[in-house]
Amino acid sequence: MSYAATAALQEAVYAKLTSDAAVDTLTGGAIYDALPPGPVPTIYVSLGPERVRDASDVVGDGAVHDFPVIVISDGAGFHTAKTIAAAISDALSDADLTLSRGTLTGLNFLRARARRVGNGREIEIWFRAYIDSSDA
């Protein structure tokens, strides 16, 4: 197993989301790994934590990365957040991302969860990435 490609995967996911016209338009470019200082937008996207497990075999090293992309809104309803979540799912599901380290062999939607958090809304969209890290 190798955890070597994790930063490369995050960079590629971030680049895909920030360059996707639908996601960019719906979020106004508010896509973050870490929130900037000062007031936060009323709706934004955050890259979440990840879980990684070994997927090595006799051919080479590999890992399976499960990670969420989270839509956070202080709005009373779910509609806008769900619209953004759908655009994120469209952008990332089966995306052919080029990693700076390792090779992405698959990227799939895994699950989602929409919930109320305080007075706002939060939608976690989980994805599973398969990475061949033999060359990482």
TrEMBL record:
Looking at the Swiss-Prot or TrEMBL record, what is one Pfam family this protein matches? Tail_completion_gp17
Show the InterPro entries listed in the entry.
Gp17-like (IPR021508), Viral_Tail_Comp_sf (IPR053745)
Protein name in UniProt: DUF3168 domain-containing protein
To which species is this protein native? Gymnodinialimonas phycosphaerae
